[in-house]
Write a structure and sequence with these properties.
Layout lengths: L1 H18 L56 E3 L9 H16 L4 E7 L6 H21 L7 E7 L10 H7 L1 E7 L1
Parallel strand pairs: 2-3
Antiparallel strand pairs: 1-4, 2-4
Helix pairs in contact: 1-3, 2-3
Length: 181
Amino acid sequence: MNSLKILLPIFAIAFAVGCSSVDSISDSADVADSEGSAGSVIPDDSNASTYGVGSVAVAGDGGPMTDTGLLLDNRAIYFDSDAVQISPESLEILEQHGEFLSLHPQSTLRIEGHADERGSREYNLGLGERRAQAVRSVLLVQGASAGQLTTVSYGEERPAVFGSEESAWSMNRRVELVYGK
């Protein structure tokens, strides 16, 4: 397990470096109207509260969430500008999601990649896809099966926050994890 924790960041960095590209980002782009992101549904499961998911999240019940908090409640992974590297804090969140998925093979997860409004539409769709694939790779290493995971890129089309300043852009550079049945 310790070697996995050492190899995971190396794998994530190698994946990100292999997928990175250098394209210029324009100063502005159109922001499409959005219906917002889809809600998430966790399948009914007697262990849902152990993992901090579902309608009742319980910490301190002796389950794996006792020491780490309710990491599975975190369903957004944020990225730096024009980047696909996953932060150490996000790796911890993804480790918990991967463990949950490995223990619940009937669960499925849609990994939605997003970008801020800067850059062309095509570039942002590609960036969202690279971010979703980086998250998918980490989840696979953590025990999720390929059949449980789907990826989609919305690019800049579904902003979490409207605006043309860093505070809005930082919230839009993300991957959302959406559970299904």
